[in-house]
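TICKET #2291
ISSUE: user wants both folds in one file
ATTACHMENT 1:
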Amino acid sequence: MFDQALAAAPESTADADALVARMFDVEATSLVRLARVFCDDRNAAEDLVQEAFIRLHRSAGSIRDLERAPAFLRSIVINLARDHNRRGLMSLRHRNSVAAVPPPPVTEPDDQAVADDDAEQVLAALRTLPERQRACLVLHYYEELSISEVADTLGISKNSVKTHCKRGLASLESRLEADR
């Protein structure tokens, strides 16, 4: 997971800069992918992640356990995406039809078209789920976080994560079956 760049919580601006730089190297790509699941615009997702790193820098001095910094960042990104969508700030000018979930590698053009269509259907169905179910599913299955890490990121219990995942998977299955 996160390789501690600092031995303790950042006490100076230089320490905070080092923490943010290290976190950016380790987490930025996965955070953009995470944000893309919640907002359909790559530019907006990148802006949300940038804002998350700004907020991390501002509050770096209050982080007591550096191992929790990745969870803190994921939580910020999810909350920013939720606020972004709630305010109706989804940008349509850069709407991209490429799904955030990469399709499996295929060699034939027809197979690629089917894989792209399947990924888009899954992503569309995922976006219809309640926010908490979607967050649990994305963090656990897409970001491959453990149940404990998802619970830590979202600030909920492990049992809540399990419940949201189970209900979210059932909803996804029924939505995808209805589409077929």
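ATTACHMENT 2:
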Amino acid sequence: MPDCNQNQVPDTCDIVEGLDDDCDANGTLDRCDIFLNGVTDDNQNCTPDSCEYAVGDFGLDGAIGGDDLAFLLSLWGTDDAFADLSNDGVVDGPDIAMLLSSWGETPYASGNCAVLPWATTLTYAPDPAVVTNATLRSAIIATCFPWRVRDNSSQIEMLLVPPGTFNMGCSASNQYGCGSSENPVHQVTLTNAYYTGRYEVTQAQWQARMGSNPSYFQGYADSPSRPVEQVSWNTIQNFLSATGLRLPTEAEWEFAYRAGTTTAFHSMPGYPSGANDDNQIGIIAWHGTNSDSRTHVIGGMAANALGLHDLCGNVWEYVNDWDGLYLPAAQVNPTGPLSGTAVVMRGGCWSDAFYLRSSSHGGYSTNLPEYRVGFRVARTP
């Protein structure tokens, strides 16, 4: 049975369950018309604009009113196909009658998009110039969730990471081998989509919520846009409680870093499949050679194939897992050991190069702040 949005549900069931529609009765779900076939949706409500125009909502604002009537009257007597709602070749009385019969809120007022009560949608469909991996774009579309949002409680921009399966663990670079803690390599399946910060949490975002700035690298003109650091894992829990956000699991973090690659370093300009060459790391990371021994403004380096920046370098990022040994068996939605003495941090920082690889990780105390360590947030839709 047809399943054009690849969500493992037949298209006819999507319509019955209110997950999608076919407003123009062309045999293709609206979402697929827009996301896959390039049908215009200027107001990003997941309904083809043509369906809204057809009932007289020329302003695409979800209601037929005076602005639409004025537009139609401005074309009175012409053969303008756009305003000719009756399709009789001229804009005249029947068109006004049709417009007035639909006066008020349209059937498409609320659109056909999933709405997140905790976030504002910035861009519903993934931008191919940002999410450069076509498989990931299709997987994002299949979730039916908006791709780029802003968390209302913290004003943090977040991107959707789709479900998927990958091999977690050792990916050596040309210069650095794997540590014992990166083995054994094991298959991990993440069954749920989740949002993660497009960037590391900044000093300004922390201060706006917590009322103070503990960072070592504060006081510079661009400090508000640098990542917050010198925050312990325990202190971060207060920020998370105040915002409703969470830390990613270690598996979620590595899956997001890799973004479909299997190499030591994620994709970058000139290396769409990732790279193992340590000489290329300066394209995506502030590290020991290029950082001038300090943090830098978020987003200054090239993103990965999901559009995420600074996953390596700048500051280490805490995740939610206790530090412990990997197991060889395949896992589904792993959350790490049940207890421990240290928590995992990922991605390396401005002072080193060894820990920038996709599989590198370290453990650190939950209650000691460190000026090389910050964090990135996550949230389940």
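RESOLUTION: both attachments delivered.
EXTRA DETAIL ON ATTACHMENT 2: Residues 233-243 form the longest helix (11 residues).
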